[in-house]
Automatic annotation (TrEMBL):
It comes from the Bacteria. In the presence of PdxS, forms a dodecamer of heterodimers. Only shows activity in the heterodimer. This is Pyridoxal 5'-phosphate synthase subunit PdxT. PANTHER family: PYRIDOXAL 5'-PHOSPHATE SYNTHASE SUBUNIT SNO, PYRIDOXAL 5'-PHOSPHATE SYNTHASE SUBUNIT SNO1-RELATED. InterPro entries: Class_I_gatase-like, PdxT/SNO, PdxT/SNO_CS. The keyword Lipid biosynthesis does not apply. One of its GO terms (cellular component) is glutaminase complex. One of its GO terms (biological process) is pyridoxal phosphate biosynthetic process. Keywords: Glutamine amidotransferase, Hydrolase, Lyase, Pyridoxal phosphate, Transferase. Pathway: Cofactor biosynthesis; pyridoxal 5'-phosphate biosynthesis. Belongs to the glutaminase PdxT/SNO family. Gene3D superfamilies: 3.40.50.880. The lineage of its organism: Bacteria, Bacillati, Actinomycetota, Actinomycetes, Micrococcales. The gene is pdxT. It catalyses: aldehydo-D-ribose 5-phosphate + D-glyceraldehyde 3-phosphate + L-glutamine = pyridoxal 5'-phosphate + L-glutamate + phosphate + 3 H2O + H(+); L-glutamine + H2O = L-glutamate + NH4(+).
């Protein structure tokens, strides 16, 4: 946990009770997200069924494998209701594979791969190739304060193009965008849930007040 988080003390309450934040728990590192959200005071719960979406204030889509998450979300019948919830304003934060799931376009998707969409971005999966699949870098993210975010990338995607409604939040030194928001949606290519820095989750929780 970062000792410098400006949002750390922000209350995660919505309507006088802890924010109910689901984590899509079909595949990937959902447990890590649940732990971070609970540590920030949210009522964090795994979500696998469409009916579990109803009472949420927000949802996190974890890292993992977007092609598998896509197949499972359709097989579990949650993909359609989740798309509808996103369209009607449910705040959703996607990390890595979760970013891919929220992207309107995937330039190198595998045959038949679908996304939920919602963010007007074109992403490239596995953008760093096999030689450098995982790496760590400090990113300046003014929105989260003066202290850089130490970001962990694991077979990560990048955002190659974004539309006018998208706000880029962070870029690599070469300019490629790796965090962004659009309305109720927040995406990062990297994995704050394993970085020991709760600022992105706190930022997401703080945004639930505004929605
Ligand atoms: N760490 C991750 O979530 C990797 C994402 C993965 N490469 C995918 O395409 O879904």
């Amino acid at each position: 946990m970062s000792p410098t988080s400006p949002h750390r003390t922000a209350s995660p309450n919505v309507a006088g009770r802890p924010a109910r934040v689901g984590v899509l728990a079909l595949q990937g590192d959902f447990r890590e997200h649940l732990a971070v959200l609970a540590s920030l005071g949210a009522d964090a719960r795994p979500v696998r069924r469409a009916s579990e979406l109803d009472e949420l204030d927000g949802l996190v889509i974890p890292g993992g494998e977007s092609t598998v998450m896509d197949k499972l979300s359709r097989a579990f019948g949650i993909a359609g209701p989740l798309k509808a919830a996103i369209a009607s304003g449910l705040p959703v934060y996607g990390t890595c594979a979760g970013l891919i799931m929220l992207a309107d376009r995937v330039s190198n998707r595998i045959a038949g791969q679908q996304t939920l969409g919602g963010v007007d971005i074109t992403v490239q999966r596995n953008a760093f190739g096999s030689q450098n699949e995982s790496f760590e870098v400090d990113l300046d993210i003014p929105e989260l304060g003066a202290v850089p975010v130490h970001a962990v990338f694991i077979r990560a995607p990048v955002i190659d193009q974004y539309g006018p409604a998208v706000t880029p939040l962070a870029a690599l030194p070469d300019g490629r965008v790796v965090a962004a928001s659009q309305g109720n949606l927040l995406v990062t290519s990297f994995h704050p849930e394993i970085m020991g820095d709760t600022r992105f989750h706190a930022y997401f929780l703080a945004g639930l007040h505004r929605s």
